[in-house]
Amino acid sequence: MIAVVLLLVCKLMAQSLMTDSLLTYWKSINADYVAFDVREDNPVAEIAVPCFYTSPDDAVLWVDSLREKTPLLIICHNGFLAQTTANRIAANGYPANQLWYAGFNQLVSHRRSALDTLHKYLLSPLAVLPSSIDAYQLRSIMLGKRNAKVVDVRTATEARSGMVPGACNLDWNSGEFSTKAAGCMNVSQDILIYCASGNRAGQARTWLINNLGFDPSKVINMGGYSTLWVNKGLSVTSVPAIICQCLAVEKNILKKTVGVLSIYAQPNPFNSSVMLKFSEAGTESAQLNVFNVRGEHVFKKAFNNGFPVAGFVWNAYGIASGLYIVKISHGERRLLEQRLIKF
Questions:
Q1: For 46-92, how does the pLDDT look when each residue is reduced to its tens digit (9 = 90+)?
Q2: What CA–CA distance (Å, rounded) separates 168 from 244?
């Protein structure tokens, strides 16, 4: 209760304070979050989450190198320097509802080795790629504005068991890779490939170089999924990136039959209400349902003429704090889910 009150007070004062318990939920629904550690220890012994280790001044500058206005967490020793840094970043135009700050001393259950530090230089589109890429280098590249594409060449079944968030899935063995690659990749891009062990990724890399004329320095075999990503404890997904150009055909089909592809919640976490926006307004009837973590139905809303273009505000005043699951259904089909945190 004290943590909740403190969170609400700090939210009114400036950006939002991240507590140790809230960070667990926050990370689970924000796979693309970014963290900057501005403690300036030398050397730093450990960090709270995989993050860019930098000074407050450099953090303000490097934020402009991020691909999108993603949820951003600033960390210092006790929170004050992180809060002032977050305020400076907000003053430069970063959305205040996407900014959080925290004290490292309070994030006791989220500490990791300092080797997990992300690489600032890879945020630059002009940075030279290393010949081999680990998880933290890959994470840095994906957060920046570089024209890069991550490709999982395992089978769809393997990908559904877990894959790197934001990656495409083109099965090498099925021939899908060779039939679609020319239409969704170009030689100006960096192509970062992985599979289960690195064998299929190596074959795909050779094929791109020999058949489509890709620069060998721009096509990287990152090896096996478990070694690259899972063993580092980073967030995973079971759904290929819908924004990936490799999935253009499937995305068009979904638009015609479903009418909605994703939900964007703002802010998330939220207090009394949250705006839910839909990537496709559609014209067919659908229903929105909200469930708590015990599976209990807490809210529903029917849309008879498609989802509103301006979005829908769910007023959750009086509903207990916690994790909630938003589900969209169309007829008998469940289309997608979105997790929300109410504090």
A1: 889 999 999 999 999 999 999 888 899 999 999 999 999 999 999 99
A2: 6
Domains and CATH numbers, the chain: 2-116 (3.40.250.10), 127-246 (3.40.250.10), 258-342 (2.60.40.1220)
pLDDT digits (tens, 9 = 90+) for 27-57: 877 777 899 999 987 667 788 999 999 999 9
As given in the structure block, the two tokens for residue 218 are 């721009």
Q: For residue 150, report the phi and psi dihedrals to the nearest 5 degrees.
A: -100, 130
